[in-house]
Specification:
The chain is mostly beta strands. The chain has a single domain (about 25-160), classed as Immunoglobulin-like (Sandwich). The protein is built from no helices and 8 strands. Strands 4-3-7-8-1-2-6-5 form an 8-stranded mixed sheet, with no helix packed on it. The radius of gyration is 24 Å and the shape is elongated.
Length: about 160
């Protein structure tokens, strides 16, 4: 009886699988105003953002708009959640972001001060809200979670109160 010897070549797997981080998702759902508690009350502008990240990482945002013919990064105000280190769950986390108001009077913090954090664009956010807020605004949001980024543009109409 003859035996058959079967020899199978074995090859090592040298394929590399790259695991990529999904970019964060941001949706601006409102551009709204609220009166602050000052005497006399002043109107403050806010954006309501829904921020999601599949890995649950924190997210940094830049809000960009065209104002008076120039593309600018909008400065975040002292109220609200700011634009750096925002928590983001997979299903989305709501955040209220103040658009810095024009700096006037004692105790006002200038939106261009050295303490302002840089957003994902690397540009210091220092364009405060104009005294007369626009009724409609086109805002581009750049979001990054440190590993990946995404960009989206939203056409917003100002509402009289924030949700």
């Amino acid at each position: 009886m003859k035996r058959l010897l079967l020899v199978l070549p074995l090859f090592a797997c040298d394929e590399v699988i790259a695991v990529r981080n999904l970019p964060p998702e941001v949706r601006l759902t409102a551009f709204c105003t609220q009166a602050d508690g000052a005497d006399p009350p002043q109107e403050r502008a806010y954006f309501v953002a829904e921020v999601a990240d599949h890995e649950g990482s924190t997210v940094d945002l830049d809000l960009l708009a065209t104002l008076n013919g120039a593309r600018v990064v909008l400065g975040p105000g002292d109220a609200g959640d700011g634009t750096v280190g925002l928590t983001a769950e997979r299903a989305g986390t709501p955040h209220l972001i103040e658009w810095a108001r024009t700096c006037t009077g004692e105790g006002c913090v200038d939106a261009c001060s050295a303490e302002r954090a840089l957003g994902p664009s690397g540009v210091r956010a220092c364009k405060p809200a104009p005294a007369a807020l626009p009724d409609a605004l086109s805002v581009t949001v750049v979001a990054t979670d440190g590993d990946s980024s995404a960009e989206a543009t939203f056409e917003l109409t100002r509402t009289a109160s924030c949700p």
